[in-house]
Structures are given as structure tokens and as C-alpha cells.
Specification:
This protein is an alpha+beta fold and about 375 residues long. The chain is built from nine helices and 18 strands. Strands 3-4-5-2-1-6-7-11-8 form a nine-stranded mixed β-sheet, covered by helices on one side. The protein has a four-stranded antiparallel β-sheet with strand order 15-16-17-18, with no helix packed on it. Strands 12-13-14 form a three-stranded antiparallel β-sheet, with no helix packed on it. Helix 1 crosses helix 5 and helix 1 crosses helix 6. The N terminus is likely disordered.
Length: about 375
């Protein structure tokens, strides 16, 4: 399905019609406001890309914020609270970073709709999805040559292997110097470094939990006042002894604060945070040995009258009780004739099952 956005309601705020028209000019009317699971950025993925994702321990499951969901995310009570009041000029304005930009529609909407933003930088790992975003940017340039011009992309950090930098494309608004940029790369190699100077970050993707510590290490360096829009609750993924500088934005605390998406036009729960180092006690308590996060869901098969287990990272299911959840692993002790539980990153072991494994059915006597 496609062609226009879902009804606004509490999961979105109305997107200006001229912004929708500009997005349709770049991507085509059928691709703006796609709903369901059969999206262009899902169909484009090759067998090789799917195999690479599986080898990394992830999947290419995909969805998008709808335009009204983006407008709500950028409201002053949420990400928009980090934007300056005056329109940007050249490099004087807000920097917005999108980690995992997919088709590029969210990044392009933010760039077109919010003149206070001087630079939107999107990074996408999957080449076929990056290709959709790059094609949209070039089509916008071809349709509006009097308004935009193509620039050389930003240089990659000196610490980055040039081979991992990937292809990039950059568009500049001629009247203001504002830039929209897309790069095809692993954002842990290129892009995440911008988190230290970004005013707003979209992180609406699911990444393997083994990468949480590295992500937290960088987010801990975010600039004061930076706003973060996250698929994950930071309470569940802050696997670091580094203090978390973020607190949840007040408007986002209620569980009813949802955002319109392709898979759930009526609203899906995301988390919005602000970097605030003035907190006397960090609102988000983390730690390397997080015991609550699990990539597994226990699901009931009505026909067979039994439970099975679904991995939300790999999108694979199994009947067997998983032996690993988060960074915890169930191990058998022949000496004690019982299972114990080992935390791989730290080497810590204990007899009591961590919550992530206990929720699946593990105990010391399993």
C-alpha cells in the first residue's frame, strides 16, 4: 500500500502539504507514506545482502516513520527542542544525524521541513537501500536545478579505513548553503563519530545487542542538549559503566506517546531523550552486566499447544530453549551437576539465572 500518509491522530502531527509534494517529487507518490511490510526498501534487498546480514547476526527487517510521525518526532517538545530559532545559513544551524537512514525519506523530510537545520547526515549499511536514497536526492536535484546543486561529500575521519567509507552523495541548497548528505557505510565506522556534535539523532533501527556497549561509549560523549530519538529504551541497552548523560523528555514519558510508522500507522512506541549532564543523579542507570535485555520472545503456538522462541534480531524461530540472551549464556557444570550463567564481556559467572534467561524458563536446576 502507499500513496499519502496515514490519518494524523495522536501518533502524528500534520505534515505541510508542500513537504509531502517535495518528497513525492523525489521518491514518487507511491513511495511516500507506504504502509504494511512490503515496502520498496524491503523488496530491493538482494539474496547476498540478506546472507551478509545473517552472518552478522542481524536481519533486514525494515519499516519507516511515516511523514506525520516524523513531524511529531521533530516537535519542540521532542527533537525540535534542540533546534535554534533562526533559519540556518551555511554551517550555522543544527546538525541532524540519522543512523540507518534506509530509503532516506525521513532525513530528506527533516532537511526540507526545518530551515533551522544546516546539515542532515544519513548513514545506511545496506547498499540497495542507500541506492533508493541517492536516487531520490539526485531526482530532486534534476527537478529543481535552480534551487539545489551537488557537492562533494564530507571527508571521512582520518581513523576510518577508506575501504569502509562507501559511496556518498551530497546536495546543497544554493540560497542558504544547507546540506543533505547520504553515505553507504556501517555507521560504527563512519557516521557515529558525528554524534559528538549532532543536535538531534535519529536511531530508529534494531542493532545486534553485542554492539550496545560500543554505541553507549559514543553516545556518552554527546553534546549537551542533544536530543535522541531511539527504537530502544536506553534503560535496557545502556551496557556501559560510563554514566548515561540522557534523560527522557517529559512529553515522551507516557507509554501513549507513539509515532506513526509503516508497520503501525496508528502508532508505535519510540523513546526520546535529551542530553542533560546537570542531573544530580543520572535518570538512566546502566552497567556492563545488564540482566534484563533479551532478543528473544516466547510465543504460544495454538495449533500445537506449545511455546516456541522467536529471535527479534535474526527473525528466526526455534522450539529449543535458547541458551543465550543478551550477553548472558547458560553453561553446564559437570562438577556441580547444574547450570550456571556466564556474562561473556566481563567473564562474570553466577548460579542465579539473570532475568533475560529466567524469563525464558531457566533456573539453577534446569
Amino acid at each position: 500500500a502507499g500513496g499519502g500518509t496515514a490519518p494524523c491522530g495522536p501518533a502524528g502531527l500534520v505534515t505541510p502539504p508542500e513537504i509531502l509534494a517535495a518528497l513525492q517529487l523525489a521518491f514518487g507518490g507511491d513511495l511516500v507514506g507506504e504502509t504494511g511490510y512490503d515496502l520498496a526498501a524491503t523488496r530491493c534487498c538482494s539474496a547476498a545482502e540478506k546472507a551478509e546480514a545473517k552472518a552478522r547476526g542481524s536481519s533486514l527487517l525494515y519499516g519507516e516513520l511515516l511523514p506525520d510521525g516524523v513531524t511529531k518526532a521533530m516537535s519542540p517538545e521532542r527533537l525540535g527542542g534542540s533546534l535554534p530559532s533562526a533559519p540556518a545559513s551555511g554551517s550555522h544551524g543544527a546538525v541532524v544525524l540519522e543512523l540507518g537512514h534506509g530509503s532516506g525519506k525521513v532525513a530528506m523530510q527533516v532537511w526540507m521541513q526545518y530551515p533551522q537545520v544546516s546539515h542532515v547526515y544519513g548513514v545506511e549499511l545496506v547498499p540497495s537501500r542507500y541506492a533508493i536514497s541517492a536516487a531520490g536526492l539526485r531526482k530532486l536535484l534534476a527537478q529543481r536545478p535552480e534551487a539545489y546543486r551537488q557537492l562533494d561529500p564530507s571527508p571521512v575521519p582520518a581513523t576510518c579505513d577508506p575501504a569502509s567509507a562507501g559511496e556518498a552523495v551530497c546536495l546543497q541548497e544554493q540560497s542558504t548553503g544547507r546540506r543533505l548528505e547520504f553515505r553507504c557505510a556501517d555507521f560504527f565506522a563512519v557516521g557515529l563519530d558525528l554524534a559528538v556534535r549532532a543536535d538531534a539523532i535519529f536511531f530508529a533501527v534494531h542493532i545486534p545487542c553485542k554492539l550496545f556497549p560500543q554505541l553507549c561509549q559514543t553516545l556518552a560523549k554527546a553534546k549537551e542538549g542533544c536530543r535522541l530519538f531511539s527504537y530502544h529504551s536506553l534503560d535496557s541497552i545502556w551496557w556501559s559503566d560510563e554514566p548515561c548523560p540522557f534523560r527522557q523528555c517529559e512529553e515522551n514519558v507516557p507509554e501513549t506517546d507513539m509515532f506513526s510508522t509503516s508497520w503501525s500507522p496508528q502508532g508505535y512506541r519510540f523513546y526520546v531523550y535529551v542530553c542533560d549532564r546537570m542531573q544530580k543523579v543520572p535518570a538512566i542507570q546502566g552497567g556492563l552486566r545488564n540482566e534484563t535485555f533479551s532478543e528473544w520472545q516466547s510465543l504460544w503456538d495454538e495449533a500445537l499447544q506449545k511455546w516456541y522462541f522467536h529471535n527479534q534480531e535474526t527473525e528466526e524461530s526455534q522450539w529449543e530453549l535458547p541458551t543465550q540472551a543478551g550477553c548472558w549464556r547458560a553453561q553446564w557444570s559437570a562438577e556441580w551437576n547444574a547450570h550456571f550463567y556466564w556474562h561473556e564481556p566481563t567473564g562474570h559467572s553466577q548460579w542465579v539465572a539473570p532475568q533475560c534467561l529466567a524469563d525464558l524458563g531457566w533456573t539453577t536446576s534446569t
